[in-house]
Amino acid sequence: MKFGVAVLAVTRKLSDLSLVEASLEAPEGVEPVATETSYRELLARAMNLASFDDALRAIDRVTFFLEARDPLIWDTAAQFELFRAILLPQQSSELRRLESIIVSADSSARNLSATIFTLTKRRDSQIQRNAQAAGVQAQLALATAELDEAQAIEVTLRQQLDQYDEQRADARVQTKRADRAAVEAASAYEQIKYEVLRHAFAGVPATDQYVFLKIITDRICIACNNEAEEFASELELRRKENRCLVCGQPRAQSETVVSTTAALQERAEAAYETLMAARVEQEELKTRFNAAEAAFVATDRRLDECRLKVDSSQREVRRLRNRLPSADQVELAATEDRIVGLRHEVNRFRRERDEAEEQIGALIGALSSATEAIREGLISSFQTRADEFFAERVQLVYAPRKDRIGQTGRAFEFPAFEVEMTSGATQSQFIRRRADQVSLSQREYLDMIFRISLIETVGRSLGSFISDGPEGSLDAVFASRAGDLFAHLISTTSENTLIMACNVVAGHFIPNTLRNYATPDDRKARLVNLLDLAYPTSALTELRADYNREIAAILEQAPR
Length: 560
Hints:
alpha+beta, three-stranded parallel sheet, 15 helices, 12 strands, 10% strand, flat
């Protein structure tokens, strides 16, 4: 097996597939191993992955397209696992560890919260059953109800605070994007404005141009160093009215000049409108961020006040409980202490989850950046292959998904791609995005093209693709297109390896797949005829000559 310039050789026993020996031959030398564990580590390292599990995941999700396959293009969770393994191999294990901490801590916190709810109900029942000290019991019940209400409000406020924090973070990101868009629009407008001025100064020496440009841009005369706002406005008015910037006279009218001036003016106005729209959006997003920030601060203040209320209520409950008879006091104190202890545990697990989420947020951000770095290449490769194969309009779009790692806690933006395909039955008005909205062959080849695009983009056309029965769901026309798809994968400009198992099928699927091999002998050299190797069935025993004749005819057939 080749991994770039390295070659992995493996020898196993046929009786039980146990490892005999394995070695990785690279420019640095040959590294032999003799145990299964060492071989797995060697394989993961050869694939530049963190673990053998990640190697299996990459092979299953990309390299092998077998009968019992799971789709990749519609499984955003699988895409995250794959991108994590191949784009962040050094941080892959840390991502897995933090995911485990988040899921475990979140589950523990929810289980303990359920136990607290049960104990709280039991405690309330104990208080209600107390027959002594009716007045104190009534006050204790009221104080306990106020405590529970305050604690419920505290939980609600904490959840609201988390939501506002998330909204604030999203608004901050959107504001930064809007700031960048406004800067880009301003730069584009200044560039167009420069083109307009350059056109307006056609024929004026560079030194004179510099004087007028400084007046226009800085509003200051470089000769006397006085403010020149009025003259700068006059120059801009002359430019807008297509008058000479130097003398103010109308320019000589010619079709070319008028056309160029109008075109530049239209571009300048369009760029200015884009700039204004970007600035309006920038202000709106800043307002949204400020609102989210204000809501966060206000909720945080209310949460602090609520916590003071909880502390006060707890002190009142303890004071009233001390006035109860000893037996009641001991029992209720034990229950309350257990509830308090469990609440501390819940808070500890939530802090543990929050800390892990804070750490994993940076790693997921790095993964998103790594995915965006390959986005254009992946989409371009996918688009090329899809346009050659499908009759419908198909495009791959980068569509990050927001989800939580646990059942509660912070939501993250995971990198993901989805496919959009038009429907021929609705004149391209309906866009299909789910696997159940496309046919079996479309489903298979959308997923297959996505995997091939990953090999070409991430593997830099040095990967392997193995497919079992890719011709099964195709008609004669699309069988030819499928052959072209596989031929492009192993074109002379790439070093990809294609291993494909298929039936003896008529048509141009096999000839088109082998179009890179000019002669029948060349094509036959690329063929492993399982009819000669497998145990013969009754049909093969009886019809071997027919099969051989069909195979020979297929290999003789020229691609279409």
